[in-house]
Write a structure and sequence with these properties.
Blueprint: E1 6-11, E2 14-19, E3 28-29, E4 37-41, E5 46-50, E6 52-53, H1 60-66, E7 69-75, E8 83-88, E9 95-111, E10 123-128, E11 130-134, E12 140-145, E13 157-163, E14 169-171, E15 178-180, H2 196-206
Parallel strand pairs: 5-12
Antiparallel strand pairs: 1-2, 3-6, 4-5, 7-9, 7-13, 8-9, 9-10, 11-12, 13-14, 13-15
């Protein structure tokens, strides 16, 4: 994938390169500065959260109107077993982009384009704004946008997808583009409670779709 306006940051034992325009994910990453990066430890990974930009919706109607595909269902695999894509810069062997391709089993199609057919039990692959890679010490590192928390295997969600510049369905609106409806994912809000009030308000309407 060709990226432009590349920014670089050196983190302990990890060089990450991102673009100000990430077309695969329908998101953009802010210029890397120390204050824009948060590093934390999870059970299995060191997590790096970076600030970024994405389209924000003022209400559920606006979100639904702009979304191409709305599905209810659940991921078919644990996060560690999904396809994690890392785009490497051949010149300096640094990471230009990282994202995850998640397989999602459909229970119900809420909205879809008229040009495509989606049915119950179909498996749909889409892009999540989270990458998994190894640093130079072979330690697993998870890079997320705006403290995004990935979908959990077996939990049920309503997700909002839109095709990116490469024709691949991608989650939109970051943590507010997915809603755990069976209350089995305690991290659905994200790695902190940012936007909790807005997400709770949206969820009350979304579960009625």
């Amino acid at each position: 994938m060709k990226l432009t306006n590349i920014k670089k940051i050196i983190l302990p034992a990890l060089t990450v390169v991102m673009s100000s325009i990430i077309l695969v994910q329908n998101y953009s990453i802010n210029e890397f500065k120390k204050e824009n990066v948060k590093v934390s430890d999870e059970k299995d990974y060191k997590t790096i959260s970076v600030d970024g930009k994405y389209k924000v919706y003022k209400d559920v109607n606006e979100l639904v109107e702009d979304t191409e595909l709305i599905l209810l269902g659940s991921p078919t695999e644990d996060f560690s077993k999904r396809k994690h894509v890392e785009v490497i810069n051949e010149l300096d062997n640094s990471t230009e982009d990282a994202y995850t391709l998640t397989n999602f089993k459909v229970d119900r199609v809420i909205k879809s384009p008229s040009s495509e057919v989606f049915n119950k039990n179909n498996i749909i692959e889409f892009v999540e704004p989270v990458g998994l890679m190894q640093d130079s010490n072979k330690i697993k590192v998870k890079v997320v946008l705006e403290e995004y928390s990935e979908l959990k295997e077996g939990s049920k969600y309503i997700i909002f997808l839109k095709k990116n510049a490469y024709g691949k369905y991608s989650l939109i609106f970051n943590n507010l583009g997915k809603y755990n409806i069976d209350n089995t994912d305690p991290t659905d809000m994200g790695l902190n409670n940012h936007n909790k009030e807005k997400k709770d308000r949206f969820k009350k309407e979304i579960i009625k779709l």
